[in-house]
Every structure is written in C-alpha cells, then in structure tokens.
Automatic annotation (TrEMBL):
Pathway recorded for this protein: Isoprenoid biosynthesis; isopentenyl diphosphate biosynthesis via DXP pathway; isopentenyl diphosphate from 1-deoxy-D-xylulose 5-phosphate: step 2/6; Isoprenoid biosynthesis; isopentenyl diphosphate biosynthesis via DXP pathway; isopentenyl diphosphate from 1-deoxy-D-xylulose 5-phosphate: step 4/6
GO MF term (any one): 2-C-methyl-D-erythritol 4-phosphate cytidylyltransferase activity
Annotated region described as 2-C-methyl-D-erythritol 2,4-cyclodiphosphate synthase, given as residue ranges: 243-400
GO BP: any one term: isopentenyl diphosphate biosynthetic process, methylerythritol 4-phosphate pathway
Annotated binding of 4-CDP-2-C-methyl-D-erythritol 2-phosphate, by residue: D249, V250, H251, H275, S276, D297, I298, G299, T373, T374, N375, E376, F380, R383
Gene of this entry: ispDF
Organism name: Methyloraptor flagellatus
Catalysed transformations (reactions): 2-C-methyl-D-erythritol 4-phosphate + CTP + H(+) = 4-CDP-2-C-methyl-D-erythritol + diphosphate; 4-CDP-2-C-methyl-D-erythritol 2-phosphate = 2-C-methyl-D-erythritol 2,4-cyclic diphosphate + CMP
Marked site: Transition state stabilizer: R20, K29, H275, T374
Residue sites binding a divalent metal cation per the record: D249, H251, H283
Role noted for this protein: Bifunctional enzyme that catalyzes the formation of 4-diphosphocytidyl-2-C-methyl-D-erythritol from CTP and 2-C-methyl-D-erythritol 4-phosphate (MEP) (IspD), and catalyzes the conversion of 4-diphosphocytidyl-2-C-methyl-D-erythritol 2-phosphate (CDP-ME2P) to 2-C-methyl-D-erythritol 2,4-cyclodiphosphate (ME-CPP) with a corresponding release of cytidine 5-monophosphate (CMP) (IspF).
Name of this protein: Bifunctional enzyme IspD/IspF
Reported cofactor(s): a divalent metal cation
Domain 2-C-methyl-D-erythritol 2,4-cyclodiphosphate synthase, chain residue ranges per copy: 242-395
Amino acid sequence: MSTPRPRIAAIIVAAGSGTRIGGTIELPKQYRAIGGEPLLRRTLRQFLTHPAVSSVTAVIHPNWAEAYQDAVAGLDGLAAPTFGGATRQDSVRAGIEALAGDPPDYVLIHDAARPFITHAVIDRILEGFAASDAVLVAVPLVDTLKKTDDARRIVDTVSRDRMWGAQTPQAFRYDLIRAAHARAVKAGRHDFTDDAAVAEWAGSTVMVVEGDPGNTKVTTAFDLDAADRRVRLEDYLRLADVRVGTGYDVHSFEPGDAVVLGNVRIPHVAKLNGHSDADVALHALTDAILGALGEGDIGSHFPPSDPQWRGADSAIFVEHAVRRVAARGGLLAHADITLIAEAPKIGPHREAMRARIAAICGITLDRVAVKATTNEKLGFVGRREGIAAIATATVRLPAL
Ligand SMILES: Nc1ccn([C@@H]2O[C@H](COP(=O)(O)OP(=O)(O)OP(=O)(O)O)[C@@H](O)[C@H]2O)c(=O)n1
Ligand SMILES: C[C@](O)(CO)[C@H](O)COP(=O)(O)O
C-alpha cells in the first residue's frame, strides 16, 4: 500500500493596509493591479495551480472583503477567506487557526505582497521537508551590511558571510507552527516579523532553501510600479507571436424597424436578414479573431443549420472566439471594424458600439475601433440592399 500524499495547505496573508506605499490608501496594495490584474489574484493563482498544494486560504481585512471578492472572481478552488488581525503575526495565526478543524500535514505561509513566487521555489520548499519540519526560502545577501547609531553614523560593518534575506513562503509541519504561534501569544510576544522567527523562538530548527531574487515583496510605491512594469514586460515578451486576422460579412435588408450593429440596436426603416441577430459587425469580428488563430470561421463553429443559433445575440460568437484565444494562452490586443452602409448613420452610435465590443471582448476601450463609410451609392450596399462589415483583429499568442 502506498503512503498517502501529505496534505499541504497554503495561507496567503493579505490583511495588511500597505501604509509604506505612501499617499492615501484608496485600495491596499494587494488589491491594486499589476499588469492589469489584482496583485493578490496573481499570488493566489500561483498556489492554486501548484499540483501539490491541496488548499489555499487568504487572510484578509474585513474592511476590504468586497475588494477581495472582486479580485478573486472566477478563480477556482479557493477556500473561504478568513479575517486577519492588527499585525502580520496575528493574521498568520488567524489563518493557521482557520485550518484547525481539518488540519493539513504542512502549511506554506506566504505574503500576498510577493506576487512573483514561482512553482520552482515552492518545489524547493517541498523538497526541504525531507530534511526539516520547518523550511524557509531566503536569498544570500549581496550587499555589504552596515550598522549605524541613531544619527546614521556607521558603528559596525557586519560580515555578510552566511547572512540571508528571508522571503516567503515559510513552511512548517502544521502542528509545529500552530503550537509555536500559540505559545508566542501566550508569552505576550507580538513582535515577530516572520514565522521562521516564531518557530526559532519556540525551539525548532529552521532550514533555509535557496529562494529567488525575483520573489520580491511589494512594499513601496516604487515596488508597485516596478511590479506592474515587470508583468507587462513579461507578458509582452511571452506573447511575441503576433497574428492579424481579417473578417468580412454582409447581410441583406428585409422589412423591419431596427438593425443590430456592434451589439447596439439602431432604429431603421428595415432590419437585417440572418439566422442570428444578423450583426454583421460582430460576425466579421468573430471571423477576424478565428482567422488570427487559424481556427476556421464562424460557420464552422456555429453552423447556420443549427437551430439553436436562430435569433441568437451575436455577442456569444465573439465571446467564443475570445475564449479560444484565452485557451491558447493569448490575448486579443486590438479589434478594428469598418461598417459599409448607406444608412443608418453609424456616427451617433459609434461610442456605444465601441463600449459594447470592448465589454464583450474583455479589453479596454482604446483597443477597439469602429469606423464607417458609405459605398458611394455603388453596388448592393449603394443600392441600400444590405450592410457589409470588414474587421481586423490583432491577437498575441505565446511565442514558445
Ligand atoms: N496585519 C497584517 C499586516 C500584514 N499582513 C500581510 O503580511 C504581508 C507582508 O506585510 P507588508 O508587506 O508589511 O504589508 P502591509 O502591512 O500591508 O504594509 P505596510 O507595512 O507598508 O503597512 C502582506 O501581504 C500583508 O497583507 C497581514 O496579513 N496582516
Ligand atoms: C515575512 C517577510 O516577508 C520576510 O521577509 C517580511 O518580514 C514581511 O514583511 P514585514 O514588513 O516584516 O511585515
């Protein structure tokens, strides 16, 4: 019989208020965006996607419960959050106690403010359990260390030999760290800045495994800005396979009183004839996105013979194409649609269309263009027999 795999819980402490970031705290740093995504969400995802981690619990401040729900919307597998305390030490303890009803074998305690934690570092911690019940990641100090008096006069140069900068995760056998935190509180000790120190104080031997200089903590406004730029640059370099797709669609008029273009209903003297809502703009865009992916066209994904698409809101076609982009690990960078119509006038509805398309695609408004032209009374469009649309979509996919 094989031994069961140890149950490893992750506690992500996110109950701080981020005072060192400076300015007025409209939103604590863990809920601020880096690379367009809340910092905390990124941190949590690193643990949620690690195959050895069996549960992930965030410790939050009750004042920011709503921000937390927004930040984690759609993340699968998270345990219910628990409320933290006045200090990091109190928050960690709250997280540990929240697991007491169904105790894990080991616990990884991590700062929400360290969003660059990698699976490789988590793996090194887990390997460390073979040698010790208490493991922390740390990086060897590279700068010369100076100690000063209160007037900032150097009083000592401290050898950096065997000196380490402690990071998180800090990982322990669950019962060991639970008992150590409980003892610390009982002894009136509330001054520990990390959990290794709590375990050391309680008499445990804590082992260091090599951390990652990139596993930095976002503490100051400079750090937050640097983290944002780092994520954006990483995404930019990762998504270096840039594709441009085109799409074209046309629908004829039939008796009616409104057309749907760019997901906006526009009163008109006729409607567009089609199996779905006949939104030529969104159909052309769907084809442009699928074209960039090299994944067929709207008809191959949504056969017109299928009755379920009769009268359908064409937003679902675009959403499907955007999901295909996400499934390939990429993003939609830009969508540009030209409507070719003698009437109705598109100008008054352009901004509404851009807003709808941006929302449907999950991209910002500045990444969506809607343009229009008449066909100078030439051809079927010129004879007001229908409306045509041309779309271009730029898609970025992982290069490797
Ligand atoms: N009462 C507290 C204080 C801190 N933390 C968490 O502990 C981690 C490390 O703390 P730090 O970077 O110092 O965060 P803040 O306390 O929020 O920042 P500051 O010290 O600048 O106020 C952060 O993820 C923070 O949210 C916590 O859960 N509960
Ligand atoms: C735990 C820690 O990340 C180790 O470096 C750090 O001590 C937490 O930050 P704080 O500023 O001490 O709360």
